[in-house]
Write a structure and sequence with these properties.
Layout (H helix, E strand, L loop, with lengths): L2 E6 L8 H10 L4 E5 L7 H11 L4 E7 L6 H14 L4 E5 L4 H6 L7 H16 L5 E3 L4 E3 L12 E4 L3 H10 L2 E4 L5 H10 L8 E10 L3 H5 L3 H8 L5 H7 L5 H9 L3 H7 L2 H7 L1 E3 L1 H14 L3 E5 L4 H12 L1
Parallel strand pairs: 1-2, 1-11, 2-3, 3-4, 4-7, 7-8, 8-9, 9-10, 9-11
Antiparallel strand pairs: 5-6
Helix pairs in contact: 1-2, 1-15, 3-5, 5-6, 7-10, 11-12
Length: 317
């Protein structure tokens, strides 16, 4: 089995983060991937709490976006955490969800150039170098980080061809979003193919255990709908073979019409984009993702310590 990670999306109360982190570490998870979703909970605070509550597990600041946080501040956050907990921090960069950026009045212009420049700036600052970068988007010069000289891996969250190729060329790994179908993950890994044997291939899989398949499927409809409402997931849905009206889903989600969200995210959609159901069904689906070539399968969709502990125990059985 590939390494197992746990993702946290910022929906659970921040007071629960230490117990969730402990459950993940005690259950054998290698990494906690802490999401940066606008309007949810702050990932840097969550990361600090998780690191302080554990001894070994690594923490990834997941898909920090240079559209909402300047690259200098992103590097500061990663370096500061690594200064306190050396060797346990991973920095994941990404453009961010278009709908969430729009809701904050932010526009993701020139994403390929912006992310490329962010990688370069963060690498230089984390290495402790004097910044001297004059790009199309960012200009950083004449300063270095007080807590630089950190060996923090940089991973890119990517799902489109050119960004996946950038990940393969410039970063230490690629992260494939949650709610992505196995055929889409396979296509993404092919695009991001790297000649570096240390290049990490990571994918998030929404996972929910139940005594029956229905008990696993029902609670995961809305998290899947949150992801799949984005127009950039059209190819993911097409390759999965599922039928889903994305425009209607986005409208229902914006209106908080949960009955309509649950109707649109059908059982078939969930089966094709997540690992849900009995322990045997979950293990079989996760094996399907692992067999594609992922180095780490990150299970998501759980918001409490007992669920994390039960899922890790069942999967590793």
């Amino acid at each position: 089995m590939a390494e197992l990670g746990i993702s946290m999306d910022g929906r659970a109360p921040v007071t629960d983060i230490p117990t969730q982190a402990k459950a993940a570490e005690e259950g054998g998870a290698s990494t906690l991937w802490i999401a940066c979703h606008l309007y949810l909970r702050d990932p840097i605070t969550m990361a600090a709490l998780a690191l302080g509550a554990t001894r070994r597990i690594k923490i990834a600041l997941m898909a920090m976006s240079p559209y909402s946080v300047h690259p200098v501040f992103i590097a500061m956050a990663a370096a500061t955490l690594d200064e306190m907990y050396p060797g346990r921090v991973i920095l994941c960069l990404g453009a961010g969800a278009p709908a969430d950026l729009k809701a904050a009045g932010l526009e993701a212009t020139k994403p390929l150039v912006t992310i490329d420049e962010t990688v370069k700036i963060c690498r230089a600052l984390l290495a402790g170098e004097m910044a001297d970068f004059q790009g199309q988007v960012f200009h950083v010069s004449g300063r270095r980080l007080a807590s630089g000289g950190r060996k923090v891996p940089i991973v890119l969250a990517a799902s489109r061809a050119r960004m996946l190729k950038l990940a393969g060329r410039e970063s230490d790994g690629v992260l494939i979003s949650a709610a992505t179908s196995p055929p889409f993950v396979k296509a993404c890994l092919a695009e991001a193919a790297s000649t570096d044997p240390a290049f990490r291939k990571v994918g998030i899989v929404y996972t929910k255990l139940g005594a029956t398949e229905k008990e696993g499927i029902d609670p995961i409809r809305r998290p899947i709908g949150f992801v799949l409402r984005g127009a950039h997931h059209a190819e993911n849905i097409r390759l999965s073979g599922a039928r889903l009206d994305q425009a209607a889903l986005a409208t229902a989600y914006a209106a908080e019409n949960w009955a309509e969200v649950d109707r649109l995210v059908s059982d078939d959609v969930v089966r094709r984009h997540a690992a849900c159901g009995t322990p045997d069904q979950v293990r079989a689906k996760l094996e399907e993702y692992r067999a594609i070539g992922l180095d780490e399968v990150v299970i998501g969709g759980m918001d409490d310590a007992p669920s994390i502990a039960a899922a890790l125990a069942a999967i590793r059985r």
